[in-house]
Amino acid sequence: MDWNSYVGHSRQRHWFRNAIQSNRLASTFLMVGPDGIGKRTFARLLAKTMLCTGASPSDFAPCCRCETCAQIDAGSHPDLIEIARRPEKTTLVLDQLIGEGEMRMRSGLCYELRMRPYSGRRKIAIIDDADTLNEEGANCLLKTLEEPPPGSLIFLISTSVQRQLPTIRSRCQMARFQALSTEELTLLILRNGLVSEPQQATMIASQAAGSMAQVANWLDEELSSFREELFDHLVQKPLDFAKLAKAVQGNMESVGTESQPRRERLKVILDFALFFYRSAMREGIEIESSGMPRTKASDGGFGRLSALDSQSFVSAIQRCIEAREHLDRMVSPASLIEAWAADLAVISRA
């Protein structure tokens, strides 16, 4: 991939191009934005731009033909170090940063970053899932962030500034990324062959909140079936919180007994609920602006909730966002589901 085929974030590209060309590039960046919008790919393209031996970094156009570009695309370049949370873990583990056992302090990202570059240019590190850094891991990383090796470049990939410790935030330059537009997401859906019809791609893109991760969830057949079941629960008045909690709990447990996959599934369910309430509120506003009495609104789709007032929609949306944040803070999923469902039932009676 090169910058010409990369979709989105033109403002960020312009900023990094100017910083590289004026030789004012910082050593450490915290790249913040929603999941699934291309932050990781953006960081890899920057690494390719800086390490490419067939073009100058100031060209901001890696050749994509040299051995360096091929190695970066294959994930095997010795000067590009990438770590991410292991699927079975809830955090980035200490071993990934400073090595394990007898190799402690003689392996891991911090050690490799201080090794002399093989290509003679620089070392670059990409720390994915930086939101899952715990205090111990962040403290191990601090010295590297305070005194980065000469010429090194570090990218931390995050979804929330608030989830980073102040000591991490203060040592990084912030680079904020926004969700992709519907047009950009539609292009990616078609380019990746996820659907063949442009109209269907646009419909999915409009529902996916600017994220390719959300697109995958909307296209998943099992999740699609449960999404309809979830919406049927949420549309009921009064909302039966016991049935809602049981349905959500059952779907979450269907992915297995491991804690992390269950948490990931619950995040998806909460995102579906967020979409539901935002869409219902939007439909209610459209009904009101059309002059049609709410009681005569269409009985299908989200119109069945059109009698809710705007504040109730806002409260429901906020409660879904809070539940997602609490899940990230390692709150028990079972307790979270019960409290969330009960609060939505109270809101629905407003």
Give an overview in words.
This protein has three domains: 10-176, P-loop containing nucleotide triphosphate hydrolases (Rossmann fold); 181-210, no CATH class; 220-348, no CATH class. 52% of the residues lie in helices and 7% in strands. The chain has 15 helices and five strands. The chain has a five-stranded parallel beta sheet. Helix 8 (182-191) crosses helix 9. It is globular. 33% of the residues are buried.
Give the topology, please.
Elements: H1 10-21, E1 28-32, H2 39-51, H3 67-74, E2 80-83, H4 94-98, H5 109-113, E3 124-127, H6 135-146, E4 153-158, H7 166-169, E5 173-176, H8 182-191, H9 198-207, H10 212-219, H11 221-234, H12 241-253, H13 259-290, H14 310-328, H15 333-348
Parallel strand pairs: 1-4, 1-5, 2-3, 3-4
Helix pairs in contact: 2-3, 8-9, 11-12, 11-13, 12-13, 12-15, 13-14, 14-15
Q: What does this entry show, briefly?
A:
The protein is built from 15 helices and five strands. By secondary structure, the chain is an alpha/beta fold. The chain has a five-stranded parallel β-sheet with strand order 2-3-4-1-5.
The CATH topology of the largest domain turns out to be Rossmann fold
- How far apart lie the N and C ends? 51 Å
Helix tally equals 15
Q: Which word captures the global form? A: globular
Biggest sheet statistics: 5 strands, parallel
How many strand segments?
5
CATH superfamily of the largest domain: P-loop containing nucleotide triphosphate hydrolases
CATH architecture of the largest domain: 3-Layer(aba) Sandwich
Element-by-element helix/strand order: HEHHEHHEHEHEHHHHHHHH
CATH C-level class of the largest domain: Alpha Beta
Task: Give the helix level as a range of percent.
Answer: 40-55%
From the helix content, strand content and strand pairing, which structural class follows?
Answer: alpha/beta
